[in-house]
Design a protein that fits this description.
By secondary structure, the chain is mainly alpha-helical. It is built from 15 helices and four strands. The strands form two sheets. It has a two-stranded antiparallel ribbon.
């Protein structure tokens, strides 16, 4: 009885030790999100909003690719579906922004289910090619269905309204985008505490074994595509209200590569990895801009010469992390935490 009590006490202490730091970091993060718009200038408020939009899109892609093992290169197309849905509803129906964003996510999820049907038969490279084909088909529709999408001219979006107040400035838009992004990330984290999330992970690890265990592959693969596309649609809807215009060129194929790079660099199969990856990849061009400003006195044409460097850096980051740290920045952080956790007791 004493031994059992001791074990229970030790287990409770260990749980306390592991949850308290997480709670502290959660409080710090939420406090930072609340304080950030008051500290940042207009340009950094713009970047903060853009980071949060990318966090939502990358989290959705991580659910599909990192947790379910279904490779997709069409996330940008699903963002475009959400953005066009929001823009069309705003133009034709004048419905509230929250309804528009939710419907944008719903329409993207429905199209994601259709695109995900081949996932029962193909996977890996072949599934990636199928999603690329779907993204090109959607881009063709956006460019030529002029009665709905406006063709190459696109659709202008009126400002979002809350209680009759138009959200025009980056400071105001931050308070629209930030709560949605936080809720979406928390939703993804809680998803993998449920039976559905565990089924996704089982399919990723070995789909044949998952099917033997009674997990219907088609249902859960399509569900994963739907959830990932819903996240992309929500991100696209916020993007539409943020930039106030949607055109076929707003979501190029390079955006899908950017989001895939974000989850690879951040860490596939972890919620924090998608968040870190989106932040890192969004702010990387800013670091390059500072480099350009630094070398401009010695290299007058630095801005022109270094303009393609962004794409090169994205490719180098993907290759570097795949070779040297396949589990991304999230694993590096965990390794540092483990090191300092045991460091005082090392011999």
């Amino acid at each position: 009885m004493i031994i059992g009590t001791a074990k229970e006490t030790y287990g409770a202490d260990q749980a306390l030790l592991t949850t308290r730091p997480q709670q502290v970091w959660m409080v710090i993060l939420l406090a930072s999100l609340l304080v950030a718009p008051f500290v940042f200038n207009a340009y950094w408020q713009y970047l903060a909003c853009l980071v949060l939009i990318n966090v939502v899109a990358a989290t959705g892609l991580n659910i599909l690719t990192g947790f379910t093992g279904q490779v997709s290169l069409g996330q940008a197309a699903f963002m475009a579906v959400g953005a066009y849905t929001v823009a069309w509803l705003d133009r034709e129906a004048g419905t509230p922004f929250l309804v528009n964003i939710l419907l944008g996510g719903g329409v993207a999820a429905a199209i994601g289910i259709v695109v995900g049907i081949p996932s029962l038969r193909v996977k890996g490279l072949y599934l990636a090619i199928a999603t690329i084909a779907a993204s090109f088909i959607l881009h063709f529709i956006f460019a030529h269905w002029t009665s709905v999408t406006g063709g190459s001219s696109g659709i202008n979006v009126s400002p979002a309204r809350i209680f009759g107040i138009e959200l025009r400035t980056y400071f105001q838009l931050y308070w629209l985008i930030m709560p949605v992004a936080v809720l979406m990330v928390l939703g993804a984290a809680n998803l993998f505490r449920t039976r559905i999330g565990r089924a996704f992970i089982a399919i990723r690890d070995r789909d044949i074994s998952a099917e033997v265990l009674g997990i219907p592959l088609l249902r859960y693969k399509l569900m994963s595509f739907a959830i990932a596309s819903f996240y992309a649609g929500i991100a696209g809807g916020m993007w539409a209200y943020f930039f106030r215009v949607v055109t076929p060129e707003s979501f190029p194929f390079l955006t899908s590569i950017f989001l895939l790079a974000a989850i690879i660099v951040g860490g596939m199969g972890t919620i924090i990895g998608a968040v870190i990856g989106a932040i890192f990849m969004t702010l990387t061009p800013e670091l390059l801009r500072y480099v350009v400003e630094w070398v401009s006195p010695w290299l007058p044409n630095a801005a022109t010469l270094l303009s393609p460097v962004r794409t090169v850096v994205f490719g180098a980051l993907i290759m570097g992390f795949l070779v040297f740290e396949p589990q991304g920045i999230a694993e590096i952080i965990q390794r540092i935490r483990r090191y300092f956790r045991v460091w005082p007791f090392k011999t």
